Amino acid sequence: MSPRANITYGPHHAQTAELWRPEGLRGDQPVVVLIHGGFWRQIYTKHLMRRLARAVVAHGWAAYNIEYRRVGRFGSGGWPETFQDVAGAIDALATVEDVDVERIVTCGHSAGGHLALWAATARTTGASIPPTTSPVRIAAAISLAGVVDLVEGARLNLGGGAVQALMGGEPDRFPERYAWGSPAASLPMGVPQFLLHGLADSTVPASLSEDYVRLAQSLGDQAEYVPLVGMGHMDMIDPHGAAFAEVRARLDLITSGSV
To answer: What is the distance between the alpha carbons of residues 46 and 228, in angstroms, rounded to a whole number?
Structure first.
């Protein structure tokens, strides 16, 4: 694996990313954008995804492990900053040499799963702001135990109010924010979506992914729900586990043009 390059996509200290490339490969390379979880909270960082980054590179893809502004005492994230950062980090790939901007896959865990799917939408954070015309095309989105429906996540009070902290309040107070920020409210997307979820997950219930895929399919999207028996929440980012084996299989489909 080639040494990582540090990329800055904005002035805030959290607006950074690591780009890891497979050693020896030349030409435009496909990229997996890795988005860490931690209920969007400041105490969790992109270090959570470094083992997956190494595994992605070993499989022949570049890995783009992004940081973003998060929620907390010393954070400055939430709505809309967290969302704007994810969009900005992805758009920055257009300025990086030897990147195949037509083969960018987002892959996130937990809160990052939410952001990985949101990144496949128009990435709009306001009714008065036109959808971003990004030079970077998301070819597919992968959610690992993602909080993919913010309204349902708030109703379940996941993470002790983590969704409400991200969005600034309850869904009935900010319905437009939830409509723009929740992947479930943005369907259909017109982008292939793969939702992997451990059935032993006690942090984010697998029903969120299952219900999401059922809705996506009913609206005409190409979406797949992959339930993983016996796997818990953190098992989803084990590079040697069943979840990453499923991720590799989806990357192979994209490489072959089957998706």
So the answer is: 24
Task: Give the CA angle between residues 104, 48, 31 to the nearest 5°.
Answer: 15
What is the per-residue pLDDT across 77-109, written as a single tens digit (0 to 9) for each? 999 999 999 999 999 999 999 999 889 999 999
Q: Between the CA atoms of 154, 158, 164 and 167, what dihedral angle is there, to the nearest 10 degrees?
A: -90
Which structure tokens are listed for 109? 């865990």
CB neighbours of 258 closer than 8 A, spacing ≥ 6? none
Q: Which residues contact 56 (CB under 8 A, 6 or more apart)?
A: 20, 32, 34, 62, 63, 251
Segments forming the whole domain that contains residue 39: 5-256
The rounded distance, in Å, linking the Cα atoms of 166 and 168 is 6
Q: What are phi and psi of 126, to 5 degrees?
A: -170, 145
CATH code of the domain containing 30: 3.40.50.1820
130 pLDDT more than 70 = no
* Count of the separate structural domains present in the chain: 1
Burial label for 217, CB within 10 Å (0-12, 13-18, 19+), is: middle
